[in-house]
Amino acid sequence: MNILQVVENMSHDMYLRLKHAAETGKWPEGTPVDPAQRDSALQLSMAYQAKHLNSSEMLSIGSDGNIVQKTKRQLKEEFTGQEPDTITPCNKNENDIARFKDI
């Protein structure tokens, strides 16, 4: 069985266990993870993210297998539900600069 078949048949609970092992170096029960297991857990959890999750994390693996990074602006839009800041011209004085609204 190759990694793609494993990921295709993996449950979400198993993904969470592997993710925990890769992040902390321990299984959820507290048993230590050896280095080979940690490497495998990291690889499998990243493959699962790419295949099954539409992650909103700043750094994740996309469905094409490439790393997806989000800018600070994209994250702000997602978390606040607001549109990007818009610039409105100031009509008071020709030397005034544009102002941001809704800050």
From TrEMBL:
One Pfam entry for this protein is: DUF1315
Q: Where is the composition biased (Basic and acidic residues)?
A: 93-103
Comp. bias (Polar residues): 83-92
Under the heading InterPro entries, the entry gives: DUF1315
Q: Where is this region: Disordered?
A: 82-103
Q: Know the name of this protein?
A: Transcriptional regulator
Native organism taxonomy = Bacteria, Pseudomonadati, Pseudomonadota, Gammaproteobacteria, Alteromonadales
